UniProtKB/TrEMBL annotation:
CDD domains assigned: MPP_MPPE1
Record protein name field: Metallophosphoesterase 1
Membrane topology: Multi-pass membrane protein
Primary gene name: Mppe1
Top-level taxon of the source organism: Eukaryota
Organism: Anseranas semipalmata
Pfam family, one: Metallophos
Cofactor(s) the protein requires to work: Mn(2+)
Length: 398
Protein backbone atom coordinates (compact mmCIF):
# COMPACT_ATOMS: atom_id res chain seq x y z
CA UNK A 1 0.00 0.00 0.00
CA UNK A 2 2.76 2.40 1.02
CA UNK A 3 4.81 1.44 -2.05
CA UNK A 4 1.84 2.13 -4.32
CA UNK A 5 1.31 5.56 -2.77
CA UNK A 6 4.99 6.47 -3.19
CA UNK A 7 4.89 5.42 -6.86
CA UNK A 8 1.79 7.55 -7.40
CA UNK A 9 3.47 10.58 -5.78
CA UNK A 10 6.60 10.09 -7.86
CA UNK A 11 4.55 9.86 -11.04
CA UNK A 12 2.71 13.04 -10.14
CA UNK A 13 5.97 14.86 -9.43
CA UNK A 14 7.44 13.60 -12.71
CA UNK A 15 4.37 14.79 -14.63
CA UNK A 16 4.59 18.20 -12.97
CA UNK A 17 8.26 18.51 -13.87
CA UNK A 18 7.64 17.48 -17.48
CA UNK A 19 4.71 19.89 -17.67
CA UNK A 20 6.85 22.69 -16.26
CA UNK A 21 9.69 21.93 -18.70
CA UNK A 22 7.24 21.94 -21.62
CA UNK A 23 5.94 25.32 -20.49
CA UNK A 24 9.48 26.67 -20.29
CA UNK A 25 10.29 25.34 -23.76
CA UNK A 26 7.07 26.86 -25.09
CA UNK A 27 7.89 30.21 -23.47
CA UNK A 28 11.47 30.30 -24.79
CA UNK A 29 10.33 29.19 -28.27
CA UNK A 30 7.66 31.88 -28.37
CA UNK A 31 10.16 34.60 -27.46
CA UNK A 32 12.64 33.38 -30.08
CA UNK A 33 10.01 33.13 -32.82
CA UNK A 34 8.74 36.61 -32.06
CA UNK A 35 12.16 38.31 -31.83
CA UNK A 36 13.74 36.50 -34.78
CA UNK A 37 10.80 36.20 -37.15
CA UNK A 38 7.44 37.77 -36.28
CA UNK A 39 8.78 41.16 -35.16
CA UNK A 40 9.80 41.99 -38.74
CA UNK A 41 6.20 41.45 -39.89
CA UNK A 42 4.80 43.48 -37.00
CA UNK A 43 7.09 46.46 -37.70
CA UNK A 44 7.13 46.49 -41.53
CA UNK A 45 3.35 45.89 -41.71
CA UNK A 46 2.94 49.43 -40.36
CA UNK A 47 4.73 50.93 -43.41
CA UNK A 48 2.54 52.27 -46.22
CA UNK A 49 3.34 53.32 -49.76
CA UNK A 50 3.22 57.13 -50.04
CA UNK A 51 0.65 58.72 -52.30
CA UNK A 52 1.82 60.68 -55.33
CA UNK A 53 0.23 64.12 -55.40
CA UNK A 54 -0.15 64.13 -59.16
CA UNK A 55 -2.12 60.89 -59.04
CA UNK A 56 -5.25 62.63 -57.79
CA UNK A 57 -6.19 63.66 -61.33
CA UNK A 58 -6.41 60.09 -62.65
CA UNK A 59 -8.57 57.10 -61.91
CA UNK A 60 -7.49 54.62 -59.25
CA UNK A 61 -6.76 51.84 -61.78
CA UNK A 62 -4.75 54.15 -64.03
CA UNK A 63 -2.83 55.53 -61.06
CA UNK A 64 -1.95 52.07 -59.79
CA UNK A 65 -0.65 51.05 -63.19
CA UNK A 66 1.38 54.19 -63.81
CA UNK A 67 3.06 54.50 -60.39
CA UNK A 68 6.36 52.68 -59.95
CA UNK A 69 6.82 51.29 -56.45
CA UNK A 70 10.52 51.35 -55.54
CA UNK A 71 12.41 50.33 -52.41
CA UNK A 72 15.80 51.99 -51.88
CA UNK A 73 18.34 50.73 -49.36
CA UNK A 74 22.09 51.15 -48.90
CA UNK A 75 25.27 49.90 -47.23
CA UNK A 76 24.45 46.28 -46.38
CA UNK A 77 28.18 45.57 -45.78
CA UNK A 78 28.08 41.79 -45.86
CA UNK A 79 31.02 40.75 -43.71
CA UNK A 80 33.98 39.00 -45.31
CA UNK A 81 36.43 36.31 -44.22
CA UNK A 82 39.04 38.74 -42.85
CA UNK A 83 37.13 41.05 -40.50
CA UNK A 84 33.89 39.13 -40.14
CA UNK A 85 33.41 36.96 -37.05
CA UNK A 86 31.14 33.99 -37.77
CA UNK A 87 28.66 34.92 -35.01
CA UNK A 88 28.50 38.53 -36.19
CA UNK A 89 27.93 37.30 -39.75
CA UNK A 90 25.19 34.92 -38.66
CA UNK A 91 23.35 37.57 -36.65
CA UNK A 92 23.58 40.50 -39.08
CA UNK A 93 22.86 38.49 -42.18
CA UNK A 94 19.83 36.84 -40.59
CA UNK A 95 18.48 40.27 -39.59
CA UNK A 96 18.92 41.68 -43.10
CA UNK A 97 17.54 38.59 -44.79
CA UNK A 98 14.41 38.54 -42.67
CA UNK A 99 13.88 42.29 -43.12
CA UNK A 100 14.33 42.15 -46.89
CA UNK A 101 12.19 39.06 -47.44
CA UNK A 102 9.45 40.40 -45.16
CA UNK A 103 9.45 43.76 -46.98
CA UNK A 104 9.16 42.03 -50.36
CA UNK A 105 6.30 39.85 -49.15
CA UNK A 106 4.32 42.63 -47.48
CA UNK A 107 5.05 45.57 -49.79
CA UNK A 108 5.52 43.86 -53.18
CA UNK A 109 7.68 46.55 -54.84
CA UNK A 110 8.25 46.73 -58.59
CA UNK A 111 11.96 47.45 -58.21
CA UNK A 112 14.62 47.51 -55.48
CA UNK A 113 17.76 49.65 -55.59
CA UNK A 114 20.79 48.95 -53.37
CA UNK A 115 23.05 52.02 -53.32
CA UNK A 116 26.47 50.45 -52.96
CA UNK A 117 28.73 48.90 -50.33
CA UNK A 118 26.97 45.61 -50.75
CA UNK A 119 30.06 43.85 -49.40
CA UNK A 120 32.40 44.95 -46.65
CA UNK A 121 35.57 43.44 -48.06
CA UNK A 122 35.02 43.47 -51.83
CA UNK A 123 37.90 45.90 -52.18
CA UNK A 124 40.43 43.23 -51.13
CA UNK A 125 38.65 39.86 -51.21
CA UNK A 126 40.20 36.91 -53.04
CA UNK A 127 38.28 35.20 -55.89
CA UNK A 128 37.19 32.43 -53.52
CA UNK A 129 36.07 34.86 -50.81
CA UNK A 130 34.28 36.98 -53.42
CA UNK A 131 32.40 33.91 -54.72
CA UNK A 132 31.33 33.04 -51.16
CA UNK A 133 30.16 36.61 -50.49
CA UNK A 134 28.15 36.62 -53.73
CA UNK A 135 26.56 33.27 -52.86
CA UNK A 136 25.44 34.58 -49.46
CA UNK A 137 24.16 37.81 -50.99
CA UNK A 138 22.03 35.93 -53.52
CA UNK A 139 20.55 33.81 -50.75
CA UNK A 140 19.74 36.78 -48.52
CA UNK A 141 18.46 39.12 -51.22
CA UNK A 142 16.59 36.63 -53.40
CA UNK A 143 13.55 38.11 -55.09
CA UNK A 144 10.53 36.98 -57.14
CA UNK A 145 10.20 37.42 -60.90
CA UNK A 146 7.72 40.25 -60.32
CA UNK A 147 10.46 42.37 -58.68
CA UNK A 148 13.64 43.76 -60.23
CA UNK A 149 16.87 44.21 -58.26
CA UNK A 150 19.40 46.89 -59.25
CA UNK A 151 22.73 47.05 -57.41
CA UNK A 152 25.02 50.10 -57.58
CA UNK A 153 28.74 49.93 -56.85
CA UNK A 154 30.32 51.40 -53.71
CA UNK A 155 33.85 51.97 -52.46
CA UNK A 156 33.80 48.81 -50.31
CA UNK A 157 32.85 46.77 -53.38
CA UNK A 158 35.77 47.86 -55.60
CA UNK A 159 37.89 50.02 -53.30
CA UNK A 160 38.39 53.76 -53.01
CA UNK A 161 39.74 55.43 -56.14
CA UNK A 162 43.37 54.61 -55.28
CA UNK A 163 42.42 50.91 -54.78
CA UNK A 164 40.03 50.61 -57.73
CA UNK A 165 41.21 48.38 -60.58
CA UNK A 166 39.70 47.23 -63.86
CA UNK A 167 39.62 43.67 -62.51
CA UNK A 168 37.52 44.64 -59.47
CA UNK A 169 35.15 46.80 -61.56
CA UNK A 170 34.66 44.05 -64.16
CA UNK A 171 34.12 41.47 -61.41
CA UNK A 172 31.32 43.58 -59.92
CA UNK A 173 29.81 44.39 -63.34
CA UNK A 174 29.72 40.72 -64.30
CA UNK A 175 27.75 39.70 -61.21
CA UNK A 176 25.34 42.63 -60.98
CA UNK A 177 25.12 43.75 -64.62
CA UNK A 178 26.28 47.17 -63.45
CA UNK A 179 27.61 49.85 -65.77
CA UNK A 180 28.34 53.45 -64.86
CA UNK A 181 26.31 55.70 -67.10
CA UNK A 182 23.63 53.06 -67.49
CA UNK A 183 20.05 54.20 -67.99
CA UNK A 184 17.16 52.21 -66.57
CA UNK A 185 13.73 53.29 -67.79
CA UNK A 186 10.63 51.84 -66.14
CA UNK A 187 7.08 53.10 -66.69
CA UNK A 188 8.47 56.18 -68.43
CA UNK A 189 10.78 57.02 -65.50
CA UNK A 190 14.50 57.50 -66.17
CA UNK A 191 17.04 56.30 -63.59
CA UNK A 192 20.71 57.14 -64.17
CA UNK A 193 23.23 54.79 -62.53
CA UNK A 194 26.55 56.43 -61.56
CA UNK A 195 29.82 54.87 -60.41
CA UNK A 196 30.63 57.68 -58.00
CA UNK A 197 34.01 56.12 -57.12
CA UNK A 198 35.08 56.86 -60.71
CA UNK A 199 34.15 60.56 -60.46
CA UNK A 200 37.65 61.43 -59.24
CA UNK A 201 38.35 63.78 -62.15
CA UNK A 202 42.01 62.79 -62.50
CA UNK A 203 41.73 61.29 -65.96
CA UNK A 204 42.31 57.66 -64.95
CA UNK A 205 41.21 55.08 -67.56
CA UNK A 206 38.15 53.94 -65.59
CA UNK A 207 37.23 57.57 -64.81
CA UNK A 208 37.51 58.63 -68.48
CA UNK A 209 35.37 55.73 -69.64
CA UNK A 210 32.74 56.36 -66.96
CA UNK A 211 32.51 60.08 -67.66
CA UNK A 212 32.31 59.51 -71.43
CA UNK A 213 29.28 57.23 -70.95
CA UNK A 214 27.64 59.79 -68.66
CA UNK A 215 28.18 62.61 -71.17
CA UNK A 216 26.70 60.51 -73.99
CA UNK A 217 23.70 59.61 -71.85
CA UNK A 218 23.27 63.25 -70.84
CA UNK A 219 23.11 64.19 -74.53
CA UNK A 220 20.39 61.61 -75.18
CA UNK A 221 18.30 62.73 -72.20
CA UNK A 222 18.65 66.42 -73.03
CA UNK A 223 17.68 65.78 -76.65
CA UNK A 224 14.64 63.81 -75.48
CA UNK A 225 13.63 66.77 -73.30
CA UNK A 226 14.41 69.23 -76.15
CA UNK A 227 16.82 71.22 -74.00
CA UNK A 228 19.39 71.73 -76.71
CA UNK A 229 19.29 74.73 -79.04
CA UNK A 230 19.03 73.76 -82.71
CA UNK A 231 17.94 70.34 -81.57
CA UNK A 232 17.04 69.30 -85.13
CA UNK A 233 20.74 69.33 -86.03
CA UNK A 234 22.34 68.02 -82.85
CA UNK A 235 19.66 65.48 -81.96
CA UNK A 236 18.52 64.24 -85.35
CA UNK A 237 20.27 60.86 -85.01
CA UNK A 238 19.86 60.49 -81.23
CA UNK A 239 17.64 57.76 -79.82
CA UNK A 240 14.65 59.39 -78.15
CA UNK A 241 14.02 58.53 -74.51
CA UNK A 242 11.02 59.30 -72.29
CA UNK A 243 10.96 63.06 -71.65
CA UNK A 244 11.12 62.58 -67.89
CA UNK A 245 13.73 64.35 -65.79
CA UNK A 246 16.05 61.63 -64.47
CA UNK A 247 16.64 60.34 -60.95
CA UNK A 248 20.33 59.89 -60.09
CA UNK A 249 21.39 56.80 -58.13
CA UNK A 250 24.91 56.55 -56.71
CA UNK A 251 26.89 55.61 -53.62
CA UNK A 252 28.73 58.82 -52.65
CA UNK A 253 26.61 61.83 -51.69
CA UNK A 254 26.98 65.08 -53.60
CA UNK A 255 29.31 67.61 -52.02
CA UNK A 256 28.25 69.10 -48.70
CA UNK A 257 30.42 70.50 -45.92
CA UNK A 258 29.13 68.18 -43.18
CA UNK A 259 25.96 66.67 -41.73
CA UNK A 260 25.40 69.74 -39.54
CA UNK A 261 22.10 70.59 -41.28
CA UNK A 262 20.77 67.02 -41.20
CA UNK A 263 17.93 66.19 -38.82
CA UNK A 264 15.76 63.27 -37.80
CA UNK A 265 16.09 60.29 -35.50
CA UNK A 266 18.35 58.48 -37.96
CA UNK A 267 20.63 61.43 -38.73
CA UNK A 268 24.27 61.37 -37.66
CA UNK A 269 24.79 61.56 -33.86
CA UNK A 270 25.45 65.07 -32.47
CA UNK A 271 29.16 64.41 -31.88
CA UNK A 272 29.64 63.58 -35.59
CA UNK A 273 27.43 66.17 -37.27
CA UNK A 274 29.95 69.00 -37.35
CA UNK A 275 32.92 66.94 -38.52
CA UNK A 276 33.89 68.35 -41.95
CA UNK A 277 33.53 65.96 -44.88
CA UNK A 278 36.55 65.17 -47.02
CA UNK A 279 35.99 65.56 -50.77
CA UNK A 280 36.41 62.38 -52.85
CA UNK A 281 36.30 60.33 -49.65
CA UNK A 282 33.16 61.17 -47.67
CA UNK A 283 31.40 63.03 -50.50
CA UNK A 284 31.94 63.82 -54.17
CA UNK A 285 34.13 66.78 -55.00
CA UNK A 286 32.46 70.10 -55.71
CA UNK A 287 33.58 69.81 -59.33
CA UNK A 288 32.10 66.33 -59.82
CA UNK A 289 28.85 67.36 -58.12
CA UNK A 290 28.49 70.38 -60.41
CA UNK A 291 29.22 68.24 -63.48
CA UNK A 292 26.45 65.78 -62.66
CA UNK A 293 23.99 68.57 -61.92
CA UNK A 294 24.83 70.30 -65.19
CA UNK A 295 24.78 67.13 -67.28
CA UNK A 296 21.49 65.69 -66.02
CA UNK A 297 19.42 68.36 -64.22
CA UNK A 298 17.98 65.57 -62.04
CA UNK A 299 14.72 65.92 -60.15
CA UNK A 300 15.99 63.66 -57.33
CA UNK A 301 19.34 62.32 -56.13
CA UNK A 302 19.61 59.17 -54.00
CA UNK A 303 22.88 58.24 -52.27
CA UNK A 304 24.32 56.26 -49.35
CA UNK A 305 27.83 55.91 -47.91
CA UNK A 306 27.50 57.98 -44.70
CA UNK A 307 25.34 55.32 -42.92
CA UNK A 308 23.11 58.18 -41.65
CA UNK A 309 20.08 59.94 -43.09
CA UNK A 310 20.18 63.42 -44.53
CA UNK A 311 18.13 65.55 -46.88
CA UNK A 312 19.66 68.54 -48.65
CA UNK A 313 18.77 70.81 -51.55
CA UNK A 314 21.19 71.47 -54.39
CA UNK A 315 20.88 74.65 -56.44
CA UNK A 316 17.98 75.50 -54.16
CA UNK A 317 15.57 73.05 -55.78
CA UNK A 318 17.05 69.57 -56.37
CA UNK A 319 16.59 67.28 -53.34
CA UNK A 320 19.15 64.68 -52.36
CA UNK A 321 18.27 61.92 -49.94
CA UNK A 322 21.13 60.12 -48.20
CA UNK A 323 19.82 56.66 -47.30
CA UNK A 324 21.08 55.25 -43.96
CA UNK A 325 22.67 51.83 -43.63
CA UNK A 326 20.47 48.74 -43.84
CA UNK A 327 22.71 46.84 -41.39
CA UNK A 328 22.32 46.71 -37.59
CA UNK A 329 26.10 46.54 -37.42
CA UNK A 330 26.14 50.21 -38.41
CA UNK A 331 22.94 51.45 -36.78
CA UNK A 332 20.54 50.63 -33.96
CA UNK A 333 17.64 51.77 -36.18
CA UNK A 334 18.17 50.75 -39.82
CA UNK A 335 15.61 51.74 -42.44
CA UNK A 336 14.86 51.85 -46.13
CA UNK A 337 13.06 54.28 -48.42
CA UNK A 338 9.74 53.52 -50.10
CA UNK A 339 9.16 55.58 -53.22
CA UNK A 340 6.02 55.99 -55.31
CA UNK A 341 7.29 57.46 -58.58
CA UNK A 342 5.71 58.67 -61.81
CA UNK A 343 7.34 60.34 -64.84
CA UNK A 344 6.50 63.78 -63.43
CA UNK A 345 6.33 63.36 -59.66
CA UNK A 346 7.49 61.27 -56.71
CA UNK A 347 6.70 60.76 -53.05
CA UNK A 348 9.03 59.13 -50.52
CA UNK A 349 8.39 57.49 -47.17
CA UNK A 350 10.85 55.98 -44.70
CA UNK A 351 10.23 52.53 -43.26
CA UNK A 352 12.13 51.74 -40.06
CA UNK A 353 13.15 48.22 -39.14
CA UNK A 354 13.03 46.84 -35.57
CA UNK A 355 15.36 48.67 -33.22
CA UNK A 356 18.01 46.27 -31.97
CA UNK A 357 17.88 47.83 -28.49
CA UNK A 358 14.18 46.95 -28.25
CA UNK A 359 14.82 43.36 -29.30
CA UNK A 360 17.58 43.18 -26.67
CA UNK A 361 15.18 44.59 -24.04
CA UNK A 362 12.60 41.90 -24.88
CA UNK A 363 15.23 39.19 -24.49
CA UNK A 364 16.39 40.64 -21.14
CA UNK A 365 12.83 40.88 -19.81
CA UNK A 366 12.05 37.33 -20.97
CA UNK A 367 15.29 36.07 -19.38
CA UNK A 368 14.48 37.73 -16.05
CA UNK A 369 10.96 36.27 -16.09
CA UNK A 370 12.38 32.85 -16.90
CA UNK A 371 14.74 32.99 -13.92
CA UNK A 372 11.88 34.03 -11.60
CA UNK A 373 9.68 31.16 -12.82
CA UNK A 374 12.47 28.59 -12.31
CA UNK A 375 13.31 29.88 -8.82
CA UNK A 376 9.64 29.85 -7.88
CA UNK A 377 9.25 26.32 -9.20
CA UNK A 378 12.13 24.94 -7.14
CA UNK A 379 10.84 26.96 -4.15
CA UNK A 380 13.98 29.05 -3.85
CA UNK A 381 11.77 32.07 -4.41
CA UNK A 382 8.40 32.47 -2.74
CA UNK A 383 5.71 32.76 -5.39
CA UNK A 384 4.13 36.24 -5.32
CA UNK A 385 0.64 34.86 -4.56
CA UNK A 386 1.75 33.03 -1.44
CA UNK A 387 3.93 35.95 -0.37
CA UNK A 388 0.91 38.27 -0.52
CA UNK A 389 -1.23 35.69 1.31
CA UNK A 390 1.30 35.53 4.19
CA UNK A 391 1.35 39.30 4.53
CA UNK A 392 -2.45 39.41 4.74
CA UNK A 393 -2.58 36.62 7.35
CA UNK A 394 0.08 38.38 9.50
CA UNK A 395 -1.85 41.65 9.29
CA UNK A 396 -5.05 39.93 10.46
CA UNK A 397 -3.20 38.26 13.37
CA UNK A 398 -2.00 41.68 14.60
Amino acid sequence: MLSSSLTTVRNLLLKKRICFLLKLVGFVSSVLIFCEFLIYYVVIFQCRWPQVKGGAHTGSKETSASVLKAIILADTHLLGEIKGHWLDKLRREWQMERSFQTALWLLQPDIVFILGDVFDEGKWSSPQAWADDVRRFRKMFRYPVSTELVVIVGNHDIGFHYEMTTYKVNRFEKIFNFTSGKLITRKGINFVIVNSVAMEGDGCAICRSSEAKLVALSHKLNCSQQKWNHSNKRCSDVEKLPASEPILLQHYPFYRKSDAECSGEDAAPPEEKNIPFKEKYDVLSQEASQKLLWWFHPRLILSGHTHSACEVLHAGKIPEISVPSFSWRNRNNPSFIMGSITPTDFSLQKCFLPHESRVFTIYCAAGALLVILILAHVQLLTPPFYFAQRLISKHKAV
